[in-house]
Amino acid sequence: MIYVLVGALALQIAFSGGGGQQADRGGAIAEISEKPFGQIALWLLGIGLVGMALWRLSEALFGQAGPDGDKPSKRAMAAGRFVFYGFAAYSVLSFAAGESGSGGGSSDQQSQDITAKVLGWPGGQWIVGIGGIAIACAGIWIAVRAIMRKYHKHLKMTEMSQKVRRALDISGVFGGTARGAVFATAGGFAVAAAVQHDPGQSKGMDDTLRSFTETPVGPWLLVVIAIGLVAFGVFSWFNARYRKV
After folding, report:
1. Res. 100: pLDDT tops 90
2. What percent of the residues of the chain are helix, what percent strand, and what percent coil, each to the nearest 5?
3. Residue 155 backbone dihedrals phi, psi, to 5 degrees
4. What is the pLDDT of residues 5-23, one digit of tens each?
5. Has residue 206 been placed in a domain?
6. Does 14 reside within a domain?
7. Domain boundary among 75, 103, 131
8. Exposed, middle or buried: residue 163 (CB in 10 Å: 0-12, 13-18, 19+)?
9. Do the beta carbons of residue 171 and residue 205 sit within 8 Å?
């Protein structure tokens, strides 16, 4: 749901500038809250994110499905995802409970605040730079794995019809590549912030997406990325149905 909404918000930005809307998790949460039954939807979304966090915690404690699920690297990644989804769940549920500043804050401002704080530490430029390189490499890794369809090994492929497989691969490859491109670009901005010692160069998802409109092809690259994020949301629903757990 979050990726579909972020993609839809990014499309609005591409075609109309988007006004004050944020194409990030905070913007998606705000968009949901303004709809009929939005408060109920936020609580359901928050509970779903709690479920995601607990699922990742179980993988960290007991291993993932599959023959290599007990590898320490797999468990460490699951633990990291548990922390991420735990924070996301907390922010959504806090917003639903009326603490608007917790879930709907700008990812751009948060990114700049964190970068500024770290740059003030001894060796802060190196920390931000290495972190940016790690995020950029993660983005490339996400995109490459999507293109190679590595997700097949995590899904119950034999239970899918030919049409479902085709839809899965279109959304998985396109969506995963777009998501990876966003991460890689955000990592590049973090590296620029480290090199220039300027936290203003660091960008959250919203500003990262808006930066795609500044390319020679204008807003059309953002249109492609936005549709890709919607596709990743669709791919996530396939995961919910066919994932090996």
Report:
1. no
2. 80, 0, 20
3. -115, 155
4. 999 989 988 887 655 667 7
5. yes
6. no
7. 103
8. exposed
9. no
Same domain? For 91 and 161 the reply is no
- Give the domain extent around 231: 106-245
Q: Is residue 16 part of a domain?
A: no
Domain annotation covers residue 167: yes
- What does the pLDDT read at residue 136? 96
Residue 137 pLDDT:
96
The confidence band for 160, taking pLDDT boundaries of 50, 70 and 90, is very high
* Cα distance between residue 135 and residue 150, in whole Å: 20
Task: Provide the number of structural domains found in the chain.
Answer: 2
Residues 11, 210: contact at Cβ < 8 Å? no
- Is pTM beyond 0.70? Reply is yes
Please give the torsion angle defined by the CA atoms of residues 193, 134, 79 and 1, in that order, rounded to the nearest 10 degrees: 70
Q: How far is CA 237 from CA 7, 103, 112, 163, 171, in A?
A: 15, 23, 32, 15, 10
How far is CA 183 from each of CA 103, 108, 173, 190, rounded to the nearest angstrom?
Answer: 21, 14, 15, 11
**Bigger pLDDT: 107 vs 73:** 73
Pick from 103, 125, 151: which residue ends a domain?
103
Given its phi and psi angles, is residue 210 left (phi above 0), alpha (psi -120 to 50 degrees) or beta? alpha
Per the CB < 8 A criterion, the answer to whether 136 and 183 are in contact is yes
With bands split at pLDDT 50, 70 and 90, how would you rate the model's confidence at 108?
confident
How far apart, in whole angstroms, are the C-alpha atoms of residue 90 and residue 99?
A: 11
Whether residues 77 and 152 fall in one domain: no
State whether 87 and 126 are in the same domain.
no
